[in-house]
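Spend some time on this chain, C-alpha cells included, and walk me through the fold:

. . .
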Amino acid sequence: MSTSTNILCFAGSLRHDSFNKKLAKIAMQGATDAGAKVTYIDLKDYQLPVYDGDFEAKSSLPDNAVKLKELFLKHDGLLMSCPEYNSSVTGVWKNVIDWVSRPATDNEPMLHCFTGKIAGIMSASPGALGGLRGLVHVRAILENINVMVIPDQIAISQAMSAFTPDGERLLDEKKDASVRKIGHKLAEVCARLQLVAKVS
C-alpha cells in the first residue's frame, strides 16, 4: 500500500550494539516497503535527566525533551523495540515517555503527543521469553496514554544468536518476515486511519 504516513522508529535502549536497535531497523524496512516515511532515532542522541517535577517547575522541559516532543507530533505512528529489564520496561524508555507526556505550554492538551498515535511493538532478549513480559507493560502504558497498539507483536529469544553477522536480518526467515510484517502492518493501519479521517 502506498501511503504518506510518517513513522518514528526507535529502541528503548542506549547500548551501541543493542539487539533491540537491530530489531527496530528490521521492522523499519517493513514499514518502508509499505510506503511509509520512517525516521529512525537513537535515544542515545537525546539524553535526558530522570524525570523530576521540581526540575520541570524550575527549568521547564529539557531541550531534548522538546526535540522529542516535536518528533512525536510530526509522526503518525511509533515503531518501538523495547528491551525487558527485570520483567518490565527499561528506565530510558519510560523516562522518554514521561518527559514527552509533559506539556510545553499551559495551553497544551493533556497527552498531546500521544493522542491518536498508532504503535507497533516488539522486543529481543538473550532470555527464553525474548522480552515478552516487558511488552505486557509497554502495551499497558501506551494504551493508557491514548496510543492504539496494533495486536501484532513479536519477542525474539536467544537474541545473541538470532541475527546475521551484519545485524540486518534474523537468521530464522519466518521470524524475520514476522518482524517486517509488524512494520508493514503499522504503516497500513496508519494509512487507513488517515483515509477515514479525511472522509469524515
